[in-house]
Every structure is written in structure tokens, then in C-alpha cells.
Design a protein that fits this description.
2 domains, 203 residues, Glutaredoxin, mainly alpha, 4-stranded mixed beta sheet, binds glutathione
Length: 203
């Protein structure tokens, strides 16, 4: 099994955390998706990370498909459930964080082809920023009212929330529009003690 990955992508991190929590702690194969690495291009027509290549050589792109496959291949009770007892609530919460991650990655990628100010201050750039700020404020509110499963095995909502938070701290460190997120910061610090989160911090 091979995981084509890089060290910054939040999508890669979701897949890696899920794999490690399911007992598949394999060393990722680091590739640069922007350099059109031939191994990545062959395995994934979209040339994006993460792309998993299973033991029988089947390429599996898309972080959430990898999560879905893991849940099917390594189901509870032998392995931890990534969906928890209330799958709908878990997925609904995860959906907010995924919107944030998408907006953040979109902003960073668009900056590659335009000057930062040019994109960030455009109507679309401001819309992406609003998604990040509002999405994280909502997740923070939810986490403060009904804690994520931060004490036990993290489910997909906690994984996505912390991946979103750590990615924003990594890419938009001093952004004045970032809401205060004390509950999520605490959750992130606590989960970082787990190898799945600790060894996959963006860098
Ligand atoms: N929906 C995909 C998104 C993957 C993605 O966009 N990966 C980025 C890195 S953050 C990438 O490889 N980009 C290269 C490109 O867009 O050409 C997933 O969930 O895996």
C-alpha cells in the first residue's frame, strides 16, 4: 500500500489521520502535485494528493473516498468508528469544516496565479474568507456547547475541525478576520498528543 501525499495539504492530513486511527500507519510517499510527479499523474488523472494505492494496485484518490473505504475495510468493533454513534451529526459537523478547508485551499491556490491582494479582496476572495471565518465560528460554537469526541477516538467531525483549524493557523497565521477559537485550540492541543495528529501537522 502506498499513500501519495505532501506535507501541507489538509486533504492529505484527513486521510492520514483516518488511516493511522484505523491502524494503517504507513510512511507516506511524498510527491509534489504541482510538479506533475509521474507516479501521481499515473495513479490520479487529477494529479492531486492524497491518492492511495491499495495492496492490489488499485488507485484511490479523494480524501473522503479513502475514509469511506477505510470504514468499510476496517469496520467497528474491531477498529474504531470514524462516524461515531450518531453518524448524521458527525457528518453534518464535518461538512462545516470541509467547507472551510475548501475555501482555504481555494484561496491559497488562487494566490498562485494572482497577486494575493488581487484575489483576497475580490468578491469571490471575500466570500471564501467569509466561509472560513463564519464556518470556524460555527464549529467553535458547536464544540463549546457539545464537545467533540476529543477524549476518546476522534470521529470525522473532530478530525475535520482540527485539520481546518491547524491549516488556518498554518496559512493565515495573523489574519485579523479569524474568530477566537479557544475550545478548538484546546481540542487541537489535546489531539496533537495522538500520533495520528501529532505526526501529521502541516509543515
Ligand atoms: N477533493 C480532493 C482535493 C485534493 C486536493 O485538492 N489536493 C491538492 C493539495 S491541497 C492538490 O493536490 N492540488 C494539485 C492541483 O490542484 O493540481 C480530496 O479531498 O482529496
Amino acid at each position: 500500500m502506498q499513500l501519495l501525499a505532501n506535507t501541507t495539504s489538509p486533504w492529505v492530513r484527513i486521510a492520514r489521520i483516518a488511516m493511522i486511527e484505523k491502524g494503517l500507519d504507513i510512511e507516506p510517499t511524498i510527491v509534489d502535485p504541482w510538479a506533475d510527479d509521474p507516479r501521481l499523474r499515473e495513479a490520479n488523472a487529477a494529479t492531486r494528493v492524497p491518492t492511495l494505492i491499495t495492496d492490489d494496485g488499485t488507485p484511490l484518490p479523494e480524501s473522503l473516498l479513502i475514509v469511506q473505504w477505510l470504514e468499510r475495510e476496517r469496520p467497528p468493533p474491531d477498529y474504531p468508528s470514524l462516524l461515531g454513534a450518531d453518524a448524521l451529526t458527525t457528518l453534518s459537523r464535518a461538512g462545516i469544516a470541509l467547507g472551510v478547508i475548501d475555501a482555504a485551499v481555494h484561496t491559497i491556490i488562487t494566490r498562485k496565479v494572482t497577486a494575493p491582494v488581487l484575489f483576497d479582496e475580490t468578491p469571490v476572495g471575500l466570500r471564501r474568507r467569509r466561509t472560513m471565518a463564519e464556518g470556524m465560528a460555527r464549529i467553535e460554537g458547536i464544540a463549546a456547547r457539545t464537545p467533540f469526541a476529543g477524549h476518546g477516538i476522534p470521529t470525522l467531525d473532530a478530525i475535520c475541525a482540527v485539520v481546518a483549524l491547524d491549516y488556518l493557523r498554518f496559512r493565515f497565521a495573523d489574519a485579523p478576520w479569524m474568530p477566537a477559537m479557544p475550545t478548538l485550540d484546546t481540542l487541537s492541543r489535546r489531539l496533537r498528543e495522538r500520533p495520528s495528529f501529532g505526526k501529521t501537522m502541516p509543515h
